[in-house]
């Protein structure tokens, strides 16, 4: 029975808890050529900003021990570009459709959210890891006082379910989550990538033009899982957990730590069909362990 | 999961890996190869070198962890292939030169086989490989060892040049063809993650804006590409 | 010429920048049976507390993707036990001898430091990742205001060179480093292990009795390197960089990021002779790249 | 770096790996094995199964990543061995039983060879292995399949029992020997990192306080060990 994989996240019903993470799955189209992506619980779009962005110059990817660093720099067609060229396909997918929104100022965030809220999508994921231009580049995702402002405004700007995506670079991840709950977010997703560095010792230069880049993949899983666990113990709104999930065992760990949905990012690059395999694995685990609904094991640890 | 037929060492750290199965793909397209579990993390993009009814083959050079593991494969070992990805070379018609530098010759063999009647130019550091193999499908095979292949290439002789190799070589050829009627197609090598156009880490800057090397490429019209510096 | 590997760290001269990290090398005795450890630049002792500790119950180690988690819980013979049974061997080693001190209260730290300062050792490494009992278990290593107190007292308690070892779980690692400098520390070492989690999904329990444990090894290297880089750009006192170093290339990365010494922890478990191999590798690199002194490349990125 | 001589499959996921070279070590000691670069991170502790002038051998069971890689080793492949580590079994004298459960029989073969005239007890889940090999160096070999080996062991018949296997089995034997004159030595399996006594992750709790399984053990006097629960 597929049905026992269903989960409720705020007002939304997911077929299963498996959601594809922002920035690793485009707008779904590419993977659609490889398998039936409507079997998934949901997908998060590539991060969109108010205006089109060309992203970062120089190397954009570097492999590390069980991880990868990326410095895509939010290349995206902009909200309008998305609505014009991508939305038609995206909105007709039979799964939960989440649009990930980035921005450098509160005004940008609010405008983006207003535009996208008119469209036929299911949820907004607010990525607060982007730099806050006003505060001199300090990311919204670091200090909870700064995050509070943007969450408040975002909340006011939409009636759609709103999930705030936390950065693991936050000074206090639990405090940050509590702020999200206080400001009326419908859920939280975490973690985004870790600020990291790699140096080309022969060239005596950072691998990345921006000096630092974001680390993802199995390497970060133990830290991400801890953060998800801490957050889940301290808020009542539902959580989407992610960070280094590559198999169903990892997914179950996040669910036992308290996550309602799990997101898969980097693992898509290891195996484009990983989403299906993880869904099948969760189902198998539930049968073996006689778990009728994920509610039975969610947050059990 | 596919099975290795053979993995032949050619010298100069180059190998030809032959894998059994029915595969799709045309000249200039590539597969993401993986002959390991979770380490290294990413699969490796390798061009189709040759393809037949019941096999596909890859010509690769050992440069790091992933290609090292490939080089240790033995007959009957398992390997995962995802693909074919990318646009591949256009089926052009006219006087054609294929120009490869080093391991850049990898995709040119299937191009020669497909297009026929081509002239082949191959530049090597120390030792030439696969000369005879290429001869079978081409009018002439020109080789330099330890010297730039561009030294012996007259772009004006050709309607089309398809090239793959070090960026500096391809850039040079594009420059040489500037103002002539010769159209140059280059096959770009960039690091990749997804291979399918979803992650945007493999950007190739072009006059038309950012393109995805994996999906919009790896073959681009040379004059469109904004090479580094 | 071995001599060009020499580095000055505060008032101390190290034969070379390679130091063995606390808790991964005991007090040196065990590795001494395997190779001539006096070829190393220095060693940090296992973390010592005022009183003997038996450490944590349950599983103490768990392997992760390119990393390991440990929950040793500072098992150690106590300062007095160390002085009585270990010091005689330790102090006669011909390399820089660093004693790592942990504690749960400022009083404990100060007493430990006073006792050890009477002995013939070269430097104290103050591990501030331990829980602060007074503040309800919040680690000294998280908030800079709390760290400041313990560093101030520690500084007053000794004339020995004092290095403060930072936790990567700090809310603001740069601020923390600046506080160390302001309070008169002679140097900084970082990073300690990352707070992390792993779950046994069949038992539906955390692998570790203490729920969380410390992550080390290659997995964390990109984050550790970024933190070392950020810190080095913001203080003038010397830094010992560590976190996932397994080969000379990694070591050079940390030096180019600004570290004066580098520490090797988990890599000792991959290869007990790793210290020597990294020293040889650094020397080879310097020859190949025509680097006469590490001063030429330190902080070059 | 040492070279593999052979890697023989015995059934029940068990293999004997023979490695060429001059090695030290006595019964009950172990080596840290590594036949991979950096993944998985840690080396794996495996007891000496047998040792001769120009070889050493290990009996192991495939349970996860590391032992899986070991099982894929072929003759002439390279492997790194660090050791011998640990205290090993004491050279006791008198009536001796060696009791192994499952893969716990691994260190007992060298013990039989060293001590001679021992009685061997081996318990297996589904299928017995190495019965004949053990017979060569023992008075009798007693085997259970699918049943607890402790069911057929009379501890009172022996001065010494050396045992290795599941903790529950060793605990039972220690309990059976309580109040008798029989001394039981148990070989403890704990996860390890350094293997040399430096990192304190392999703690074995004993009446004498924390001991390091790798350095003070893996062999302990049974009555000293504080088993879990
Ligand atoms: C579309 C495409 C087709 C290719 N076709 C072939 C082919 O037919 N034969 C062949 O030998 N090689 C080909 N390559 C290059 C090949 O993908 C890399 O050499 C390989 O990924 C290196 O992996 P590694 O683990 O051995 O090296 P690593 O250990 O990852 O790195 C070793 C060195 O190679 C560089 N490198 C790593 N990945 C790439 C990459 N994707 N592109 C360029 N440089 C890289 C690194 O920067 C480093 O300097 C192709 C690349 C692309 C993008
Ligand atoms: C002193 C000593 C001697 C040993 N001798 C032998 C021997 O002769 N033959 C043999 O087959 N095995 C022996 N073992 C056990 C062997 O070390 C483990 O089975 C092996 O490390 C598992 O590695 P893996 O990568 O295959 O499994 P993993 O993928 O790491 O884990 C698979 C399962 O094995 C468990 N496990 C992992 N490491 C250990 C460990 N060190 N001890 C116990 N359980 C572990 C894990 O918890 C997990 O349940 C010995 C262990 C010790 C401590
Ligand atoms: C190439 C790449 C691009 C990403 N782009 C975005 C993005 O646009 N918006 C966002 O919120 N997260 C982005 N992320 C972060 C992922 O969604 C995810 O949070 C992170 O990678 C951790 O999960 P993983 O370890 O499963 O990949 C990106 C990650 C990668 C690897
Ligand atoms: C088993 C183990 C025990 C450790 N014990 C201590 C300790 O007592 N005091 C301390 O300051 N750091 C301790 N550490 C942290 C290391 O010194 C080091 O900071 C950390 O492991 C990161 O470096 P690495 O990735 O090279 O191991 C310990 C680490 C490990 C793996
Ligand atoms: S590799 Fe992902 S877009 Fe090209
Ligand atoms: S494994 Fe390190 S002390 Fe035993």
Automatic annotation (TrEMBL), chains A, C:
GO terms for biological process: 'de novo' pyrimidine nucleobase biosynthetic process; 'de novo' UMP biosynthetic process. It comes from Tepidibacter thalassicus DSM 15285. The active site is at 130 (nucleophile). GO terms for molecular function: dihydroorotate dehydrogenase (NAD+) activity. The lineage of its organism: Bacteria, Bacillati, Bacillota, Clostridia, Peptostreptococcales. It is found in: Cytoplasm. Its cofactor is FMN. FMN binds at residues 22, 46-47, 100, 127, 165, 191, 217, 243-244, 265-266. InterPro entries: Aldolase_TIM (IPR013785), DHO_dehydrogenase (IPR050074), DHOD_1B (IPR033888), Dihydroorotate_DH_1 (IPR024920), Dihydroorotate_DH_1_2 (IPR012135), Dihydroorotate_DH_cat (IPR005720), Dihydroorotate_DH_CS (IPR001295), Dihydroorotate_DH_I (IPR049622). Its EC number is 1.3.-.-. Pathway: Pyrimidine metabolism; UMP biosynthesis via de novo pathway; orotate from (S)-dihydroorotate (NAD(+) route): step 1/1. Keywords: Cytoplasm, Flavoprotein, FMN, NAD, Oxidoreductase, Pyrimidine biosynthesis. This is Dihydroorotate dehydrogenase. It is an enzyme of class 1 (oxidoreductase). Belongs to the dihydroorotate dehydrogenase family. Type 1 subfamily. Residues 5-286 form the Dihydroorotate dehydrogenase catalytic domain.
Automatic annotation (TrEMBL), chains B, D:
Keywords: 2Fe-2S, Electron transport, FAD, Flavoprotein, Iron, Iron-sulfur, Metal-binding, Transport. Gene3D superfamilies: Dihydroorotate dehydrogenase, electron transfer subunit (2.10.240.10), Nucleotide-binding domain of ferredoxin-NADP reductase (FNR) module (3.40.50.80), Translation factors (2.40.30.10). FAD binds at residues 44-47, 66-67. One of its GO terms (molecular function) is 2 iron, 2 sulfur cluster binding. The keyword Transferase does not apply. SUPFAM superfamilies: Ferredoxin reductase-like, C-terminal NADP-linked domain (SSF52343), Riboflavin synthase domain-like (SSF63380). [2Fe-2S] cluster binds at residues 194, 199, 202, 214. It comes from the Bacteria. Belongs to the PyrK family. This is Dihydroorotate dehydrogenase electron transfer subunit. It comes from Tepidibacter thalassicus DSM 15285.
């Amino acid at each position: 029975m597929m049905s026992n994989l269903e989960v409720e996240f705020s007002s939304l019903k997911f077929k299963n808890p498996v959601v594809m993470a922002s920035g690793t799955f485009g707008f779904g189209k590419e993977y659609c050529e490889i398998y039936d992506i409507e079997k998934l619980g949901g997908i998060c779009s590539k991060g969109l900003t108010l205006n089109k962005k060309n992203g970062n110059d120089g190397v954009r990817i570097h492999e590390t021990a069980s991880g990868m660093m990326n410095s895509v720099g939010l290349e995206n067609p902009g909200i309008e570009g998305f609505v014009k060229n991508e939305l038609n396909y995206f909105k007709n997918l039979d799964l939960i459709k989440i649009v990930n929104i980035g921005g450098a100022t509160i005004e940008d965030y609010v405008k983006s959210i207003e535009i996208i809220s008119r469209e036929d999508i299911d949820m907004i994921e607010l990525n607060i890891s982007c730099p806050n231009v006003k505060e001199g580049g300090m990311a919204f995702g670091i200090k909870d006082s700064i995050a509070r402002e943007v969450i408040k405004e975002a909340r006011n700007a939409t009636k759609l379910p709103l999930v705030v995506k936390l950065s693991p670079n936050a000074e206090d991840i639990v405090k940050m989550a509590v702020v999200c709950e206080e400001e009326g977010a419908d859920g939280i997703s975490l973690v985004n990538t870790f600020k990291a560095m790699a140096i080309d010792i022969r060239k005596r230069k950072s691998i990345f033009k921006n000096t630092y880049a974001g680390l993802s993949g199995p390497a970060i899983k133990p830290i991400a899982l801890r953060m998800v666990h801490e957050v889940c113990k301290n808020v009542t709104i539902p959580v989407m957990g992610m960070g280094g999930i590559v198999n169903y065992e990892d997914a179950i760990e996040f669910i036992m730590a308290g996550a309602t949905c799990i997101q898969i990012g980097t693992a898509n690059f290891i195996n484009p069909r990983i989403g299906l395999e993880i869904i099948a694995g969760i189902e198998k685990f539930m049968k073996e362990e006689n778990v009728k609904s994920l509610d039975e094991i969610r947050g059990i640890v | 999961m596919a099975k290795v037929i053979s993995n032949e060492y050619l010298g100069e750290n180059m190998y030809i890996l032959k894998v059994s199965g029915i595969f799709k793909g045309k000249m200039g397209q590539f597969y993401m190869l993986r002959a390991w579990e979770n380490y290294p993390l990413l699969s490796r993009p390798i061009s189709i070198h040759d393809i037949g009814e019941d096999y596909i083959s890859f010509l690769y050079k050992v440069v790091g962890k992933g290609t090292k593991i490939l080089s240790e494969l033995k007959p009957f070992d398992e390997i995962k292939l995802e693909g074919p990805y990318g646009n591949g070379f256009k089926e052009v018609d006219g006087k054609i030169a294929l120009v490869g530098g080093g391991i850049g010759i990898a995709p040119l063999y299937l191009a020669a086989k497909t297009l026929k009647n081509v002239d082949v130019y191959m530049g090597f550091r120390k030792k030439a490989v696969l000369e005879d193999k290429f001869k079978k499908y081409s009018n002439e095979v020109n080789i330099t060892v330890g010297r730039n292949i561009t030294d012996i290439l007259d772009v004006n002789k050709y309607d089309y040049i398809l090239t793959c190799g070090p960026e500096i070589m391809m850039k040079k050829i594009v420059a040489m063809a500037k103002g002539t009627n010769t159209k140059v197609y280059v096959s770009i090598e960039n690091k990749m993650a997804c291979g399918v156009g979803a992650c945007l880490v493999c950007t190739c800057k072009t006059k038309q804006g950012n393109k995805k090397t994996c999906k919009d490429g790896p073959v681009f019209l040379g004059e469109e590409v904004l090479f580094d510096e």
